[in-house]
Design brief:
By secondary structure, this protein is of the alpha+beta class. It has 2 domains: about 60 residues; about 90 residues, Histidine kinase-like ATPase, C-terminal domain (Heat Shock Protein 90, 2-Layer Sandwich), CATH 3.30.565. It contains 4 helices and 4 strands, in the order H-H-H-E-H-E-E-E. It has a 4-stranded mixed sheet with strand order 1-2-3-4, covered by helices on one side. Strand 2 and strand 3 form a beta hairpin. Helix 1 runs parallel beside helix 4 and helix 3 packs parallel to helix 4. It starts with a helix and ends in a 6-residue tail after the last strand.
Length: about 160
């Protein structure tokens, strides 16, 4: 998360600077996103440092992010200037923790890249739940560029 929040903070800071005189309300929204993103980054840094300090303890106390937090990613992308539409197909079900975390990170990285590099104002995401597969398809609609198509094969049935 830290490696993804810092670039998003950078994008939002640039947007705030650009909008400051022309549209102070949008600049204020971007600054709010910077505050929220930096708060999340600080929380993760503290958790990481806590784990490093307590090497003999079992695991971090905070749950890993997953697709249940996808709305937070969409809100952050919106503040960076993207309109994100998510479509879900198939039957949503709990994912194994490593797959859920990987899906979240793929979405996070893809939205960050779309905000920084694509020049698109809109992004369409499809989460396709199959029997033993989750496909994440993301398309920057303005430039019709497939940003990421990732399919994760699961070993055995989903939980």
């Amino acid at each position: 998360m830290i490696g993804h929040n810092i670039p998003m903070i950078n994008v939002q800071a640039g947007a705030a600077l650009h909008r400051l005189k022309k549209d102070p309300a949008q600049a204020e929204e971007a600054l709010g996103a910077i505050k929220a993103g930096s708060r999340e980054t600080l929380r993760e840094l503290r958790a990481t440092l806590g784990v490093l300090r307590r090497v003999d303890e079992a695991a971090p106390t905070a749950p890993a992010p997953g697709l249940a937090r996808v709305d937070e990613l969409v809100a952050s992308a919106k503040l960076a200037g993207l309109t994100v539409r998510i479509a879900r197909t198939g039957v949503e079900r709990p994912l194994p923790a490593p797959v859920d975390l990987a899906a979240y990170r793929i979405m996070q990285e893809s939205l960050t890249n779309a905000a920084r590099h694509s020049g698109a104002g809109r992004v369409s995401v499809r989460l396709s739940y199959e029997d033993e597969e989750l496909a994440i398809l993301m398309d920057a609609l303005v430039i019709r560029c497939l940003i990421v198509a990732a399919t994760m094969q699961l070993m055995g049935k989903w939980a």
